[in-house]
Automatic annotation (TrEMBL):
SUPFAM superfamilies: CheY-like
Residue ranges annotated for the OmpR/PhoB-type domain, each copy included: 132-227
Pfam annotation, one family: Response_reg
Modified sites of kind 4-aspartylphosphate: D49
Keywords: DNA-binding, Phosphoprotein, Transcription, Transcription regulation
Native organism: Streptomyces cirratus
Protein's UniProt name: DNA-binding response regulator
Length: 238
């Protein structure tokens, strides 16, 4: 697998490059945003530092997501909750704060590659076989096979992970899914709940569709596909 390492710190880049090479990956390092954009098409996955000299890392993340769908992990010293939420909403598959244990990062890379490989295919729709036709709830239509969402006939652009969550719920709309089940199926890690990744992506689905009841919260347990009404403005807490 070919990794794109976007990191301007020489010592960190050397340590990460060595660890990845020991796992059998080839690594291209980019120390600037422009170089990252130039080489991202070659990458099977991306490690992205946010503290770059020529462009804010979150802005680079947004630009990368317009041209590349490869698994991407933010690896940064920024630990503010706002940065973490913005990174996940911008399309990061995971967010790791420096300093970190190298073994943990490698494990997260393996997990992200595994789950993005599964979730990007038809299996994201679940084993029920519902992936063959769109699912409608209220004025929302989720095309599981085409990976598109429309609201009142209007296309809505979700990140890959947001769509994966919505598709998982839509494939079995009558069932309530626990947080652990969703995290295990979509993130490949049932213990990822502390990272708030699931909550951030659910909030993104509600905000982008303008249908807060599209994802129904079952408090203390998990989520279920809801039945939104046009112009609903509730908190989706059901």
């Amino acid at each position: 697998m070919h990794a794109l390492l976007v990191e301007d710190d020489d010592r960190m880049a050397q340590a990460l490059g060595t660890a990845l090479a020991q796992r059998g990956h080839t690594v291209r390092r980019a120390g600037r945003a422009l170089d990252a954009l130039r080489h991202v098409h070659e990458a099977d996955f991306v490690l992205l530092d946010l503290g770059l000299p020529d462009l804010d890392g979150l802005e680079l993340l947004r630009r990368l997501r317009t041209v590349c769908d490869a698994p991407l992990i933010v690896v940064t010293a920024r630990c503010d909750e706002r940065d973490i939420v913005q990174g996940l909403r911008a399309g990061a598959d995971d967010y790791v704060v420096k300093p970190f244990r190298m073994a943990e990062l490698i494990a997260r890379i393996d997990t992200v590659r595994r789950r993005t490989g599964i979730a990007s295919g038809r299996s994201a729709a679940g084993p029920s076989g519902a992936g063959g036709r769109p699912v409608r709830t209220g004025d929302v239509e989720v095309d599981l096979a085409g990976r598109t969402v429309t609201v009142a006939g209007r296309d809505v652009r979700l990140t890959r992970r947001e769509f994966d969550v919505l598709a998982f719920l839509a494939a079995r709309p009558d069932e309530v899914h626990s947080r652990e089940e969703i995290l295990d199926r979509i993130w490949g890690d049932a213990f990822l709940g502390a990272s708030r990744s699931l909550d951030v992506h659910v909030a993104g689905i509600r905000a982008k569709t303008g249908r807060s009841a599209l994802v129904r919260t079952v408090r203390g347990f998990g989520y279920q596909l809801g039945s939104p009404a046009a112009g609903d403005e509730g908190d989706g807490g059901g």
